[in-house]
Design a protein that fits this description.
322 residues; 2 domains; five-stranded mixed β-sheet; 13 strands; four-stranded mixed β-sheet; binds oxa(dethia)-CoA; Peroxisomal Thiolase, Chain A, domain 1; single chain; alpha/beta
């Protein structure tokens, strides 16, 4: 019987500096009221220079390993989802590997923007199921504050920095349905120009800033995420009634509420962190998951539905029995 990927531990890291909407409004042509009404965001964390994707990913990974009661020697591989790596190479995952003192296995970064954590979870789950690894750290770590265009008030107020991680451990297939039940990932490259970064290290003098056509992304998000959620339920012959928790990508409170309503979930069953973290891209789902895990809302045995969508366009869902 193939192994299942058990979410053995969850961890997170947020930069110390908190920036409120009011503080942003001192330098950006915006208001606290606009940001709250349109997005639900009240504040975000911004990194200090030392709080890079590798630094924050390492801290989140340490917390996930501690939560699992696991050691660096239990780690066979690290998959780190980020659009804001420390360097073009080595992979940020390998900076984390070194910082953790992991001396074996594989590590690589995965670029799938805000859906990066779901994509990384999907890859890690496949590797565990096929027997290639027994312990995998899946990390989302982002410093979007470094790629924001401060002249564009339509985007610079929406994002924050942070990292979240889970440690996946191969289960023995005891017959229980604990672990990742399914993942579904999708991409539509023809929509690449509605949300992108207009540069990279490979481009001359153009490190790049985030560009988004918000309304179009919003429209696709509501449709695609609803499809991905339904796909996850159908694949497992489950209904929305079986879901204990929705842990959605934290981009906009209005999208999150729409997803909760579509599923018919009571609002208190939807984990929301967008007001405190803003959109932390690949870190947003594991940060939210960690918050509800640490504060005791999500418990072992419960069914958790994760979903995210980001620039690419990329989107996906994962269904997990904790
Ligand atoms: O993580 C990846 C996935 N991303 C998403 O899912 C994001 C999806 N999109 C959204 O969440 C929303 O489209 C936004 C929050 C980005 C924007 O909300 P919106 O309701 O679509 O607003 P809008 O862009 O259509 O702008 C409405 C108005 C405009 O003014 P006019 O032209 O109507 O006079 C903007 O200039 O709001 C103005 N505006 C602002 N005003 C104050 C835009 N940004 C701001 C701002 N402060 N920061």
């Amino acid at each position: 019987m193939p192994s299942r990927s058990i979410l053995a531990g969850i961890g997170a890291y947020l930069p110390e500096r908190i920036v409120s909407n009011a503080e942003l409004a001192l330098t950006v042509d915006t208001t606290d009221a606009w940001i709250r009404e349109r997005t639900g965001i009240q504040q975000r964390h911004f990194s200090a220079p030392h709080e890079t994707a590798a630094f924050m990913g390492t801290e989140a990974a340490k917390a996930a390993l501690a939560d699992a009661g696991a050691l660096p020697s239990d780690v066979d591989g690290i998959i780190l989802a980020t659009s804001t790596p420390d360097q073009a190479f080595p992979a940020t995952a390998l900076r984390v590997q070194a910082a953790l003192g992991v001396t074996k296995g594989f590590g690589f970064d995965l670029a799938a923007a805000c859906a990066g954590f779901i994509y990384a979870l999907s890859v890690a789950d496949s590797m565990i199921k096929c027997g290639q690894a027994k312990g995998v750290l899946v990390i989302g770590s982002e410093v979007y504050s470094r790629i924001l265009n401060w002249q564009d008030r339509g985007t610079c107020v929406l994002f924050g920095d942070g990292a979240g991680a889970v440690f996946l451990r191969a289960g023995e297939g005891t017959g229980s349905d604990q672990g990742i039940l399914s993942t579904h990932i999708h991409a539509q490259g023809t929509l690449g120009d509605i949300l992108y970064v207009d540069g990279a290290v490979g481009q001359p003098d153009k490190p790049g800033h985030l560009v988004m056509h918000g309304r179009e992304v919003f429209r696709h998000a509501v449709t695609r995420l609803a499809e991905a959620v339904q796909e996850a339920l159908d694949a497992n012959k489950l209904t929305a009634d079986d879901v204990d928790w929705l842990v959605p990508h934290q981009a906009n409170r209005r999208i999150i509420d729409a997803m909760g309503r579509k599923l018919g979930l009571a609002p208190e069953r939807v984990v929301i962190t967008v007001e405190d973290h803003a959109n932390t891209s690949a870190a947003s789902v594991p940060l939210a998951l960690c918050q509800a895990w640490k504060d005791g809302r999500i418990k072992r045995g419960e069914l958790v539905l994760l979903e995210a969508l980001g620039g690419g366009l990329v989107w996906g869902s994962a269904l997990v029995r904790m």
